[in-house]
Amino acid sequence: MIGIEDVLGIALVLVAGLLLLALGIPGWKPRHLTLRSIPAFVRLWKSISLTIEDGKRVHLTLGNSSLLKATNASALVGMSSLERIAQLSIASDSPPLATSGEGSLTILSQDSLRYIYRRANSLRQFDMTSGRLTGVTPYSYAVGTMPVIYDGNVSTNILIGNYGPEVIYINEAAERKGIYTLATSDSLSAQAVLYAAAMDPLIGEELFAVPAYMKFNRYHEASLHTQDVLRWILVAALLGGVAYVLLQQLVGITFR
After folding, report:
1. What gap in Å lies between CA 98 and CA 116, rounded to an integer?
2. pTM for this one?
């Protein structure tokens, strides 16, 4: 038998789906729904633009989590970001570099880059070595990524994925080269290290906002607005519940 909790859960999913579809319609979005300003993304856009203009490379590292694990959400965020960076770099002679510490992520990054270049009718520019497996253990992956930063003509460094504290080696390589670095992870240990060491760290759920702020797809931005609307609905429900309890206690009215 279906209980009230099941009905509320189904209703919440339906409301979220309808909001996502409505807010994702091209050309339709309430004016007051805007993304809050995050200075790190402003600096990221500037760094990517200067990198492409100078004929250098954007390096994005995707972590070492398997796609079969629960920690793969951050890698998928990184993959969306990689596709967007590839779109921006089509006119450049230097395609972006993607490094990872897990075989399936490497194959997926190569396929994503190939897809972007095929869509732009520039498949000749695609280089299979743009997606690289730099190590199969956490520390070998981190150490194997360092030469890419030192010798890969890199000017912008982006870390999005699942890491451990070994991520400090990747960040340190970028710091020594004076390369702009934006870093985020779903791992608490990596967040702690990056918050103290990275030039522009993103904390918590800001990780999942990266594709929206990079304007990869309108539905990424719509998902953030949907979350905001759902938060207000939750706040209204909590306040309504508090008001109901107070009304019961102070007035003695019971609603049936």
Report:
1. 14
2. 0.81
The model's pLDDT over 111-127, given as tens digits with 9 standing for 90+, comes to: 988 988 888 888 888 88
164 in Cβ contact with 138 (< 8 Å): yes
The string of pLDDT tens digits covering residues 121-167 is: 888 888 888 899 999 899 999 999 999 998 878 999 999 988 989 99
Dihedral (C-alpha) 131, 134, 137, 140: value to the nearest 10 degrees?
-160
Q: Cβ-count burial of 14 within 10 angstroms (0-12 exposed, 13-18 middle, 19+ buried)?
A: exposed
Q: What angle do CA 155, 65, 116 make, to 5 degrees?
A: 50
Answer yes or no: are the C-beta atoms of 207 and 186 closer than 8 Å. yes
Model confidence pLDDT, tens digit, residues 27-82: 666 666 677 788 888 899 999 888 888 888 999 999 888 777 777 788 888 888 88
What domains can be seen in the chain, in order of their start residue?
Answer: 39-216 (3.40.50)
216 Cβ contact partners less than 8 Å away, ≥ 6 residues apart: 80, 81, 83, 84
Kindly give, in sequence order, each residue whose CB lies less than 8 Å from that of residue 174, ignoring residues fewer than 6 positions away.
149, 154, 157, 180, 181, 199
Q: How far is CA 97 from CA 1, 11, 88, 124, 208, in A?
A: 53, 43, 13, 16, 21
